[in-house]
Design brief:
The chain is α/β, with parallel strands linked by helices. The chain has helices at 3-9, 23-36, 50-59, 76-83, 97-106, 122-135, 150-162, 201-210, 217-228; strands spanning 41-44, 63-66, 90-93, 111-116, 136-145, 166-169, 176-181.
């Protein structure tokens, strides 16, 4: 099933179209996986399953996704997967990533592609990346979502500054940060480089303001402008 067909079937409620993975983002993931022939995949975060459905359609293989909050979404992600007839390919773990990922590591699981879109606090993203690094095959890819957030940008900068075994891969979408693992980590125990960044200070402040408090006409205009800018 191709992205256009998927998006005709899955249901994303109007009240959460701003935080959900966008159609163009899901299509990028689908195309990237197909072009690079990636098969073993892991996803942190699930929500309405737009990204998960595109990943499974691209790989035609088993996909692991973990998310403890599917009930908060009325199980709509799982329902979307069922409507797409992809349930057999989904290994869904209804638990926090800090519980799921260590178990996968202990089982010696390895993945070609890991999508991080769960806890968006800095420490949560950093812990997810820490385990993603342990779980990722050499030459595999890890993709961070929501780079409009300061927390994501700081993790991105940490990887660029400190993870010498990773290569940054440019994408056409402003809300993604993609890295390829080139080799295993060979740093010694004393290695450290500062990693502060100024990126996304304004977008983070603006979107935080837009998504808190009463929805006004001004906020609606800003949301429309945001959606027009890729």
């Amino acid at each position: 099933m191709i992205p256009e067909e998927i998006n005709k079937i899955i249901e994303i409620p109007e009240w959460d179209t701003y935080s959900a993975v966008k159609k163009e983002e899901a299509k990028f993931i689908y195309d990237f996986i197909v072009e690079n022939n990636l098969k073993s995949t892991l996803e942190i975060g699930f929500a309405f399953a737009r990204s998960a459905s595109h990943i499974m359609s691209a790989t035609q293989a088993k996909h692991i996704a973990c998310d403890p909050f599917q009930n908060n979404y009325g199980d709509m992600g799982l329902k979307n997967i069922e409507k797409l007839h992809l349930s057999e390919k989904l290994d869904f773990r209804p638990d926090f990533s800090h519980n799921v990922l260590p178990v996968l590591h202990k089982e010696n699981r390895k993945f070609d592609f890991i999508f991080i879109d769960g806890d968006h606090k800095f420490d949560g993203i950093l812990v997810d990346f820490y385990y993603a690094d342990l779980l990722l095959e050499v030459n595999g890819y890890v993709l961070l979502h929501d780079t409009w957030m300061r927390s994501t940008r700081l993790v991105e900068k940490f990887i660029k500054s400190n993870k010498t075994n990773y290569k940054y891969v440019s994408t056409p979408l402003r809300n993604f940060s993609l890295f390829q693992k080139m080799k295993e980590d060979t740093r010694d125990g004393m290695f450290f480089k500062e990693f502060y960044t100024w990126k996304s200070i304004l977008p983070h402040s603006m979107i935080t303001w837009m998504t808190n408090g009463k929805m006004t006409f001004t906020k609606k205009v800003f949301f429309k402008i945001k959606d027009l800018v890729k």
